[in-house]
Amino acid sequence: MITIPLSADALAATRFAVSPLMHAGALLHPYRPRTTTGAYSLSYSHVSGVLREQRLHLLAAVRQMVHAFAPVFYAPVFLTPPAAAGRIPEPHEDLHRVASAPSRVVARQLDSLLGVQSQHGRAALAALRILRRVADRGEADFANQLACELDRFWLRGLSRTWSEAAAGAAEDIALRTRLLADHGMAGALGSLHDSVCYGDGALRMVGPGTAEVPAGGHLVLFPSPWAHTWLLSVDPQEQRPAYLIYPARPQPSSSPPDGRNRSMGGVLGPTRSALLADLEVARTTTQLAALHHLSASTVSYHLGLLHRAGLVSRTRSRNSVYYQRTVPAAALPRPAAEPAAPGR
């Protein structure tokens, strides 16, 4: 379990943000699964293939060394520039900040990467050799080459879906803001992922390994459709806040729009259409059961079908699970006859 103590001041300063580089970080993260599904199904092996095909050796080496800091991952500060407040930066803005990072900042961060002990295996040793070889040319060359490789990785893997991903991240932040208004910061933080909870002045995340992050700093929370679980990055030199990437909700369907509507024709019936009509705002199974005079098991059955079809998102807040419609009412296909549900 990872524990992050959060004082009242740190909690007050915690905020949400959208960042192109954090989206790239979600893809490059060593904990990315070998296989993924959905509209953003770029697996670990696919990302590794892009790094090889495009000969992005420095970026691959940095990725390998980030893994050596498990369970709390560390990415150099110049690779994670401060997130813009109030707007979504363009990818070229983030890349320019990487390329133009001050040499003294790059030097300090390189010291952290190059100081990793050799017991992390042959892959880490090979990555260290690449880092040292490029670092010998100077900090400015190191930052510039890394920015160039990030740019090529972006163009190859992310550029075509960036607009949709950024819009989805902004929509997720709007959802968390509503949860914050209804349930407070503890509810909003607990909704980020099933294994994340807040209580007793600390954020706790269940996962591999155990670590406690030093107290004092706040969090910046980055929703990303490319994240399959929570991904934490902490700067041991405390030059920036802790960054927490989490899966954006709602996730888009993996089917093309036209094909999705055809497949959903058999999903919708009178009951599910009625449930969807009341999911303009997030509601629990119990709330929907009371509204529609149905048993909780019946509502749960229908919500399961709607969720698998990509028509509703599912978000946990404390001990409750909230469902919300992911598409406008006008975009829904016509209802079809539906089979009887259990308990109806």
Low-confidence residue ranges? 33-37, 252-266, 334-340
Q: Strand order within the widest sheet?
A: 3-4-1-5
- What level of helicity do the residues show? 40-55%
**Element order, helices and strands?**
EHEHHHHHHHHEEEEEEHHHHEE
Count of helical regions: 13
Protein name: Helix-turn-helix domain-containing protein
Organism: Streptomyces qinglanensis
Region (Disordered): 247-267
Keywords: DNA-binding, Transcription, Transcription regulation
Give the arrangement of secondary structure elements.
Layout lengths: L1 E4 L2 H6 L1 E2 L3 H9 L15 H10 L3 H11 L23 H9 L3 H12 L7 H14 L3 H19 L4 H29 L5 E4 L2 E4 L5 E2 L6 E6 L6 E3 L8 E6 L9 H8 L5 H8 L7 H8 L3 H13 L3 E6 L2 E6 L19
Parallel strand pairs: 1-5, 2-6, 6-8
Antiparallel strand pairs: 1-4, 3-4, 7-8, 9-10
How does this structure look, described?
It holds the Pfam family HTH_20. Residues 266-338 form the HTH arsR-type domain. GO terms for molecular function: DNA binding; DNA-binding transcription factor activity. Keywords: DNA-binding, Transcription, Transcription regulation. This protein has 344 residues and is α/β, with parallel strands linked by helices. It has two domains: 2-247, no CATH class; 257-331, Winged helix-like DNA-binding domain superfamily/Winged helix DNA-binding domain (Arc Repressor Mutant, subunit A). It contains 13 helices and ten strands. The protein has helices at 8-13, 20-28, 44-53, 57-67, 91-99, 103-114, 122-135, 139-157, 162-190, 257-264, 270-277, 285-292, 296-308; strands spanning 2-5, 15-16, 196-199, 202-205, 211-212, 219-224, 231-233, 242-247, 312-317, 320-325. It has a four-stranded mixed sheet. A four-stranded mixed sheet has the order 2-6-8-7. It has a two-stranded antiparallel sheet with strand order 9-10. The two termini are 42 Å apart.
